[in-house]
Input
Amino acid sequence: MRFGVLSRYLLRQNMYYMLICLCCGACLYLLSDVFDRLDNFVQAEVGTETIFFYFLVKIPLIISQLMPAIFVLAMVIQLGILSRSKEMLALRAGGVSWTWFIMFFVWYGLFWSGVQFGFSQVVGVYGEHEANRIWKEEVRKRQLDELRIKHLWFRDGPFVVHAEEAQPSKSRATGVTVYEFATDSERLIRIISAKKALVDDNGWGLLDVHELDTRTFRAAERLSQFLSVRQNLESFSAVKLSNDKAQLPLWELGDVIGNLKVSGANVNQLETVWHSRFAYAFSVCVMALLALALSTVSDNLFLNIGLALALVFVHYGFHVVGVSAGQQGTVPPVLGAWFGNMVMGGLAVLRLAWVSVPGLADSVKNWLAGLRFGRV
Output
C-alpha cells in the first residue's frame, strides 16, 4: 500500500486523538489508584518520594493496559469526525474504497500492536515489578523472603515429590513425601516420608525419615537421608510470585515453563499467560477492525463512542473467559488466550466483508430467499 498524502493525514489525525485519549485515560486510572491506595501509604508512613516513585513506575503498565481501548476510541472519533465533516464522503466519491481504509488501518493497528507488545514486555514489566515490590515491602511489610508455597508437587527423574509447605528463600520444605519409581517399568518401589528437607544444588537432605520398600514391604526409620533430587525451589518461587499478574518478562516466563515441564509440573496456567501476551498485543489490531465495523453501522459519533466502550468490555469479557478456560485446562492454552480476539475479530471481519465485498450482500440475500422459497 502506497504511503501518500492521505496516509500521512490520517496518521497525524489519529495520533493526535490517541494522545488526547491516552492522557485522559491515564489520568483517570492514576486518580482512581491514588484514591484507592493513598490511605494505605499514609498508614504505613511511607515517604513522599516512595509514593511518587510507586505511581510513576505504574504509568508504563497503565499505558500498555489501556492501549487497545485508547486505540479504538481514537479511531471511532477520527472516523466519526471524517463522516460529520463530509471528508469521508468526498474521499469515497474520489475513488478511495472501503478496502483501502481497511488495509490502511489494519497495518496501522499491527504497528501499534508491536509497540504495545515491546513496551509492555520491557518498560511495563519493570514498572510492574517495582510497583509490586514497593507495595509488598513498604506498605504491606511482607518481605519476599517470607514466601510459602502450600502443597507443592513436581517430578524429577524417578522421583515424584510432594511437600506440604515449601520456603524457597530458605531452601527448605516440611511434610515431604517422595515416591520413587523404577526407571525401566515405572513401578513404584519406595515411599519415603520426612518431616523436613534441606535443599541445595546437589540434592535434597531429608530429616526424620520413614522409608517403605513396596517390593518387600519392609519399613525403616532414619535420622537423615540424602536423595539426588536436583530440582531447586527458585523456579517455583518465581512462578508463585508471578501468578497474579504474570510479572515475569516473556523470555523468562518461557524458561520457567520449560523447567517446570521437565519436572512434570502442570504448566497450563503459565502457557496460557505466555500466549495471552501476544493475544493482548494483537487486540489493538482487532480494535481497528471493530472501529471500522462501527463506522459502517452508524454515523452518530456519540453513539459509536458508547458502542465502542461497550465492545471493549465485551472483548475483555471474552478474553477473560478464554484465559480462565485455558488456565484450567478446559481448552488448549493457545485457544484460550486467543478466544476473545477470534470472536470479536471474526464478527468485525464479517461486517466489513458484508459492506466492502462487491455482490456479497446480494448473494447472501438471494441464498436466504432461495432457502425460504424451498421451505414454502
Summary: The longest strand covers residues 188-200.
